[in-house]
Design a protein that fits this description.
By secondary structure, this protein is α/β, with parallel strands linked by helices. It has helices at about 1-20, 45-55, 70-85, 100-105, 140-150, 155-165, 175-180, and strands at about 25-30, 35-40, 60-70, 90-100, 110-115, 120, 170.
Length: about 190
């Protein structure tokens, strides 16, 4: 029985590696917009860079259904690229953006959202424990905390996400929470 358990663990680990080695997102160029959906992986930033090189007219990253990321470093690298290029980010009325997708949304120089879009947040888990269980000065917080502070001017939103829901849950943010943490640079669109 223990051998089967070991085989199952090894198989699941390999699946995660294969999943991260492929790009879990779909990107479609529509005029000056790049419409993105799916799961951000380690391959997403390089594909994103290639599309931007081929389409210099892109000004806005539109996220539709982005359920998160399986590579936080890739998401943050892509976010810094979005910010450096001065791109805007936008959520349509039917957008559902969770977890690492929210981190990417924060990168927009201009961040807009249509009424009806959903932003979902939760704590992270590193395989050992919940992010919320680490003391505030733990180095495990540094990468994402610093990124959020760079994008929003404060790390308050980072600490909120850790308490909003456990890693296996999701908290849909209210309009008041979105406004409180300054996630949008313009009022919500009707």
């Amino acid at each position: 029985m223990r051998q089967w358990a070991l085989v199952l663990v090894l198989w699941l680990s390999a699946c995660g590696v294969v999943e991260n080695a492929s790009d879990g997102t779909q990107m479609v160029v529509r005029g000056d917009q790049l419409v993105l959906s799916g799961t951000i992986t380690s391959r997403t930033p390089s594909n994103f860079a290639r599309i931007l090189t081929e389409n210099p007219q892109i000004r806005t990253l539109v996220q539709t259904q982005v359920d998160g990321s399986i590579d936080g470093e890739a998401t943050i690298a892509m976010g810094y690229r979005v910010r450096a290029l001065g791109l805007g980010t936008h959520l349509r009325s039917d957008s559902i953006v969770d977890s690492g997708g929210v981190d990417l949304f924060l990168a927009g120089r201009q961040r807009t959202m249509a009424r009806g879009a959903n932003i979902g947040v939760h704590s992270w888990r590193n395989g050992y424990r919940e992010g919320s269980s680490y003391p505030p000065n733990a180095s495990e917080h540094d990468m994402t905390r610093r990124y959020i502070a760079d994008m929003l001017g404060s790390d308050a939103f980072y600490w909120f996400t850790l308490q909003a829901a456990p890693s296996d849950g999701i908290h849909e943010m209210t309009a008041a929470e979105i406004a409180h943490f300054g996630l949008l640079t313009r009022p919500m669109l009707n």
